[in-house]
């Protein structure tokens, strides 16, 4: 099970959280977000990290040029597309970043959204299912309707996101079988201010399930 901790904004917290051995760290490249960090801030946070850690820039309807500049300057190894990017745009991103993990996030309201997610599975490396919120793109703390997602089996690995916390992630993984989990606000004191103890509790909760049957 891969673990992605998303929405890091501070170097000291990023280094401390990297030492807890998550698999991916996410940096929000969406200017409207309270967790936004610019390419040079990302570079400062990513530079000291072990290369095995996948470092993901999270974008929403950014241009190819902005994505390219941020990935290069920040030294990122993953791209998450969290807006209303088309299939064609996702395909173009994948063609331009062949060595980079491309993740398409879908905010799920109904079964039609899940069907749409399956289509994106043909053009990206990984999918991420997040909760829908009418006014915010991500980091909302809202949970998905897990029952609706049961049986979701895309052609590529997928992450469960949306409202996960140290004390509900085991329940979620008892109902669903994603290849990864993503958390942001469930391990924060306030937007962008990560609590290492909560991150450690989240990682322990997930890793302890890796040893169960
Ligand atoms: O976190 C943000 O502020 C954000 C803003 C704009 C687009 C995406 C954003 N976050 C993307 C993520 O991958 C979050 O981890 C995901 O939405 C889950 O968040 P949470 O429900 O708080 O765990």
From TrEMBL:
InterPro entries with a match to the protein in the record: Aldolase_TIM, PRAI_dom, RibuloseP-bd_barrel, TrpF_fam
This protein's pathway: Amino-acid biosynthesis; L-tryptophan biosynthesis; L-tryptophan from chorismate: step 3/5
Its EC number(s): 5.3.1.24
Pfam families for this protein: PRAI
Top-level EC class as recorded in UniProt: isomerase
Every N-(5'phosphoribosyl) anthranilate isomerase (PRAI) domain range: 3-204
Any GO MF annotation of the entry: phosphoribosylanthranilate isomerase activity
Alphabetic keyword roster: Amino-acid biosynthesis, Aromatic amino acid biosynthesis, Isomerase, Tryptophan biosynthesis
Reaction(s) this enzyme catalyzes, per UniProt: N-(5-phospho-beta-D-ribosyl)anthranilate = 1-(2-carboxyphenylamino)-1-deoxy-D-ribulose 5-phosphate
GO terms, biological process: L-tryptophan biosynthetic process
Family label: Belongs to the TrpF family.
UniProt xrefs under HAMAP family: PRAI
Name of the protein this chain belongs to: N-(5'-phosphoribosyl)anthranilate isomerase
Species: Prochlorothrix hollandica PCC 9006 = CALU 1027
Gene: trpF
């Amino acid at each position: 099970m891969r673990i992605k901790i998303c929405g890091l904004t501070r170097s000291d917290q990023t280094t401390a959280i990297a030492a807890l051995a998550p698999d991916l760290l996410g940096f929000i490249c969406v200017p409207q977000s309270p967790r936004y960090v610019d390419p040079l801030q990302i570079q400062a946070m990513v530079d000291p990290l072990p290369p095995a850690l996948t470092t993901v820039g999270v974008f929403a309807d950014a241009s190819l040029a902005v994505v390219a500049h941020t990935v290069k300057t920040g030294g990122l190894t993953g791209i998450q597309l969290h807006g209303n990017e088309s299939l064609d745009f996702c395909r173009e991103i994948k063609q331009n970043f062949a060595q980079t993990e491309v993740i398409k996030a879908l905010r799920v309201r109904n079964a039609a959204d899940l069907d749409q997610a399956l289509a994106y599975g043909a053009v990206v490396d990984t999918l991420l299912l997040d909760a829908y919120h009418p006014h915010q793109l991500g980091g909302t703390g809202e949970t998905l309707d897990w029952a609706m997602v049961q049986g979701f089996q895309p052609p590529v690995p997928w992450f469960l996101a949306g409202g996960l916390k140290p004390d509900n992630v085991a329940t979620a993984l008892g109902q669903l079988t994603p290849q990864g989990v993503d958390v942001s606000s469930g391990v924060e004191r306030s937007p962008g201010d990560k609590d290492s103890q909560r991150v450690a509790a989240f990682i322990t909760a997930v890793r302890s399930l890796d040893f169960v049957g």
